[in-house]
Amino acid sequence: MAAHQEKKPSEERKHKSTQNDTRTSQVQWGRAWEVDWFSLASILFLLMFAPLIVYYFIMSCDQYQCSLTDPLIDLLTGNKHLSDIWNKTPILTYRAACIYTLWVAFQMLLYLFIPDFCHKFLPGYVGGVQEGAVTPAGVVNKYEINGLQAWIITHVLWFANAYYFHWFSPTIIFDNWIPLLWCANVLGYAVSTFAMIKSYFFPTNAEDCKFTGNFFYDYMMGIEFNPRIGKWFDFKLFFNGRPGIVAWTLINLSYAAKQQELYGQVTNSMILVNVLQGIYVLDFFWNEAWYLKTIDICHDHFGWYLGWGDCVWLPYLYTLQGLYLVYHPVQLYTANAIGILMLGLIGYYIFRMTNHQKDLFRRTNGNCKIWGKKPEYIECSYMSVDGTKYYSKLMTSGFWGWARHFNYTGDLMGSLAYCLTCGFEHILPYFYIVYMTILLTHRCIRDEHRCFSKYGKDWKRYTAAVPYRLIPGIF
């Protein structure tokens, strides 16, 4: 989507006269002002059970070799009680607390105090100070994009330690995995609670806050749109990318080191997980400036959903394949390994090229070529809460002419490839593809609801031109 702002003073009356027609788009930009019973029930369910789901999965690997059914069977048959399982769970340790504190502090140091230099010598990479999208209140925030730099520095130090300094074992993350879980939970709840208190007493921008009056919904989905401390510490950008996604590849490397320690080799399935998920992580940081235009930054407010989710849910459940392979090393047949690799690479290609087409179209305002031709698009308009009118173009060419969210299709192909590396003996590694399917399908519906509220009849024209959401001809 390409957009520009209409700023002519003479149009102010016209803006106001059309404001009633776009009132719905204003309230739906971001999250809801009011909470229906289904949304509240969903929020309460997630607040209560999401932490238990994470604990159950990690505990199942630690005590039951990654079986999701054996703990339930033990409890239902009376072989064990909840207290037995809990008493065998490693507790928070001083060592884990020190590791986690140093980790988060180090990532904050890289984020705040080392300006990006990668964009000065990496062709095509966009880093340094970049502008985000216009917020509902009409604010344009600036961000220091240095995630790729932080990832490189972190991993250079990791490998330097593993092969030269030997300050700590490469298995340190796996060896402290459950004690680190408690540390991650402390940070997740702390930052979510702080963000909520901040929104009441010292918000960064009061006009970008949304209060529903429902404590649970506001805590879960957030009140402030872009909470910040000082000029540069942006909660959303930091917690979305650091510390969780930088840690993602380190966690997988620690799993591989543990496999080497236990079995004397690293299986090809573990290598595949490290390579495929490493590509995804590197892509995220290479395109961090593009990420400023995605739904997480442009629509989601910062609450428990992002704060706790980025600290706990992402690093613990997105890395289940590597964790499973520590307990169940799988050596794939060469043909199977090649097939999984191709599935992952094709999925990544679709994911990246689809997003590239959209970004190119947006940057050039449609003055570009997609698949060798000038792109087709539908023109539409919308209003921000301050009454300013904006114009957009919705592309209907390239992959975006195949389906409205074909980038998600590529993402799901990659997610399936991660899971297939683990074979078919247990269902635990396949949680990721199930979760991603639910998440991305929900995002499709949520995004389209907002777009319809934002663009109105123009969105209907777009869906008529591109009738499928994810799979051309099917859905």
Task: Please supply descriptive tags for the structure shown above.
three-stranded antiparallel sheet; about 5% strand; mainly alpha; two-stranded antiparallel ribbon; single chain; 7 strands; about 475 residues; 22 helices; about 60% helix
Structure in words:
By secondary structure, the chain is mainly alpha-helical. The chain has helices spanning 12-17, 23-28, 37-64, 70-77, 82-87, 94-113, 147-165, 172-175, 177-201, 215-221, 235-241, 244-263, 268-286, 288-291, 295-298, 304-317, 320-327, 334-363, 399-402, 406-420, 431-455, 457-465; strands spanning 2-5, 128-134, 140-145, 228-229, 233-234, 377-383, 389-395. The strands form three sheets. Strands 1-7-6 form a three-stranded antiparallel β-sheet. A two-stranded antiparallel ribbon has the order 2-3. A two-stranded antiparallel sheet has the order 4-5. A hairpin with a 5-residue loop joins strand 2 and strand 3. Helix 12 runs antiparallel to helix 13 (268-286) and helix 12 (244-263) runs parallel beside helix 16. The radius of gyration is 23 Å and the shape is globular. It starts with a strand and ends in a 10-residue tail after the last helix. The model is unreliable at 3-29 (pLDDT under 50).
